[in-house]
Amino acid sequence: MMETDPESLEATKRLQDATRKLLALRYGPYGEAGKNFRVRLDLEFQPSIPDFDEGGKEGMLMFELAPVSLIPCSVYNFLEIARTWRKGAFHRNAEHVLQAMAHSAVTQSMPFQEYSEEYPHKKGTVGYAGRPSGPAFYVSIEDNSEAHGPGSQQDDNPYEADCIVGRVIQGMADGTVDRIHTMPGHEFLEDKKKWVWIRRMHILVPEDGPGGYVEFSSSPDVIPEDDDNDDDDSE
Predict the structure, then answer these.
(1) d(CA 92, CA 154)
(2) Separation of alpha carbons 128 and 179, rounded Å
(3) Which of 9, 135, 202, 205 could share a disulfide with 216, CB 3.0–4.6 Å?
């Protein structure tokens, strides 16, 4: 088990240390200062959503990524997904998570199941789907500390968990997450007209002054088109 094997632990530590340096070079030394990156998701609801006439098509989620000191590889991976975002959508409507497919330059799963007990899969957190995890991701709409935490989803390794990304800091209280959960249907939705599209991602980095954050990059404002590669059923 790599979570307890000394050589594996040393290898993952070296990778994490190198990733922190890469984060600072590419996105700025904010993690070193104890400040967290943020990613804003511009959403597009479709007419299939029950309250479309009242709520319209636009929506937004804001993620605050986990501290770089805890899970740098997961943070870096998600920033790369956001920076190179092409398109994706929430397409799984489960009782415990809302899962999104992610189409970007990041096409590989995480190199290892990076997880910190200091940042469990609580309600409102964002995790990578699958084992190995990613690049698909999900929002936990209930406490998934046991369902996706150490020892979950398999019987062989009591330490393995889903990789975690961060948490929703805008979209829980205002009802946006609840609105996504009204997508007609349960589990993976085959009908694309029922999905909630993620049109665009914006990376925000800390800055002194009003608001405390400025935009670092934003992906193109994509109008989703039918694509045979849209399907993504990562668990």
Answers:
(1) 21
(2) 21
(3) 205
- Tokens representing 45 are 């609801």
What's the pLDDT score for residue 154? 81
For residue 177 the two structure tokens come to: 């997450």
User: Using an 8 Å Cβ cutoff, are 74 and 121 in contact?
Assistant: no
DSSP-assigned beta bridge partners for residue 200: 42
For residues 197-213, give the mean pLDDT. Answer: 90
Q: Are 131 and 113 in contact (CB under 8 A)?
A: yes
Evaluate if pTM is beyond 0.90. Answer: yes
Distance CA 26, CA 75 (A): 12
Among candidates 73, 152, 143, 86, which has minimal Cα distance to 112? 73
Closest Cα to residue 63, out of 40, 85, 42, 46?
40
